[in-house]
Amino acid sequence: MSETPHLTFDPDQAGMSKGHLVVPKGADSEPLPLPVLSFNKGEGPRLLITAGCHGNELEGPIVARRILDWLPRLQECGRVILVPVLNPPALKAWSRNSPGDGLNLNRVFPGRGDGSISERIADAVSRVLLPMVDTVFDLHSFGPRWEFAPASTTHPIADADLMSKTLRMSEAFKLPVTLVWEGPDTRGMFDTLAHSQGKIFVCLELGGGAVGTDNLAVAETGIRNALIALGIVRGKAEYPTFRQQKSSRTLKTFSSDQLKSPERGIFEPRCSVFDEVKQGDLIGILHPLDPCSSMPIDIRARTTSIVCGVKSGVPVDVNDELALLARPLHS
Amino acid sequence: MSETPHLTFDPDQAGMSKGHLVVPKGADSEPLPLPVLSFNKGEGPRLLITAGCHGNELEGPIVARRILDWLPRLQECGRVILVPVLNPPALKAWSRNSPGDGLNLNRVFPGRGDGSISERIADAVSRVLLPMVDTVFDLHSFGPRWEFAPASTTHPIADADLMSKTLRMSEAFKLPVTLVWEGPDTRGMFDTLAHSQGKIFVCLELGGGAVGTDNLAVAETGIRNALIALGIVRGKAEYPTFRQQKSSRTLKTFSSDQLKSPERGIFEPRCSVFDEVKQGDLIGILHPLDPCSSMPIDIRARTTSIVCGVKSGVPVDVNDELALLARPLHS
Q1: How confident is the model at residue A2 (pLDDT cuts 50, 70, 90)?
Q2: Across the interface, do A312 and B20 touch by the CB < 8 Å criterion?
Q3: Which of A54, A266, A310, A320 to mutate to test the interface with B (most CBs of B within 10 A)?
Q4: Domain that holds residue B315
Q5: Which of A6, A273, B71, B187 has its CA 20 to 30 A from that of A310?
Q6: Prior bond to A110 cis, omega within 30?
Q7: Residue B183's pLDDT is what?
Q8: Closest by Cβ to A289, choosing from B66, B85, B145
């Protein structure tokens, strides 16, 4: 019989403490210890911050380290549980999915204690950490294949009160974009589980492409803004600077707004983040791998939209997403 | 007995023509047809442009398509042979090395006719295309793991006259950086072969990170500038705009200027391209994967330098390159 997932330390002790969440061994691996830090200043909001669910989205794991520089000093109340890397095997491999079982960790929640490594990580987080908090920030990005505007995102939530609170929390990050995202299928996602338990869950998409100083500064400012809004740390919220601008807009996007590739080929982006496009405007060009064999295909906007993200110049397969377009939530 | 590499069309015909360079079959694959375009306007410079040597550097393959929009119309004289994708299997896999044999195509020149797929590609290019030209532009980039300033680069060349001509050609791109790069080991590189035959060879490093509209525009302008300088196309050279600046500088870098990772970990960049740093300035931080187990390590500049490239926030291994620093060539 396998052991149950557990913490190696007591997160109820005052101040900063650290240790591991032990994901029990399974048929495919030895026990996996996930580093966990706890910041306890007594009564107040109870927050879980997770990062590194996908191994090629390093904005979160790095910002998680930057938080350590000021959170212990600035915390006023409440509790923060911080998991800088949810999926160490995927991070070591710089891959979105877990290299062992090939699964997307963010599609297997609430997980299974007797499952493969991704399922056991999800199970450990769901059973040990999630019950300890009221609010979750899960730090993602669009990864190296995208140019993407740093955004706080949420899927639509059936519970109107929770939706309202979640949207307000999302906007408190003051990131360049707050996005209400009607995804095609949210089964197995961490946020779906948290929302079903009545918790506020905000998914951060902290950019895309190279993880550089600019995007990291935006991300860190956003997280601090949210901690200030929760009352956990003291300070004054400020808009981060993104591409010479300090601004924020709340947008919505539907599955039908996402442009997908009609063929295999090489995608050439012809627009940038925050471009405002009209129906028929050129978003990009899909080039055949062999320019002697067939013609390029223009990829055009279907409606008046704002570009939230556009794929980098990369090889794409049929049905790969090429651009994420959105429109104002209140219009 | 295997067939020999050959073109499926006659590049001596006037105007634009196209077809394939057939890389013969070998033990590991069927024949591989590489698309080739030829632009022949008679007497004048004879230029080979290659792109897509490394499969995750898409700037070149995309700019190669953009050239098609204006080269036939603007060409005045001479000949251009264009190979948009040297290594289609690597491009399909979005990987630096060839997926079949795991080799870096740019370390196996002049190749082997009876070798693995990378060696046979190198052999076909060396035997069929290289003898047809006096000048080669090979379009690379630093790939998705780097922030990098678009640069034309050359290694030092023993032949002083060829070095002088190569540097002048490199500067004619008017890219943000012209870089003389004393690499640690240039064996098997395409430029080493071309230089040994007295040809001018410029390696373009057309950026890094996301392949977006900005960098593609810089790259396209740079290539057009070089074609203008050669007299192949008519037009007026202009500095491309890179990060709100129109400027160009000629730098040199030595192996000892490159900062490498002392440990395995997560690299956090703390500088950006074009930052001017002094000895001891912070370039980045190397975080341990487990923040509970060990401390971060500061990565600092060794001398007064200009940042040409800095690694993105990614997982790194011991001895992985973290930053490429340089200094003015003439100082």
Answers
A1: low
A2: no
A3: A266
A4: 257-328
A5: B71
A6: yes
A7: 76
A8: B85
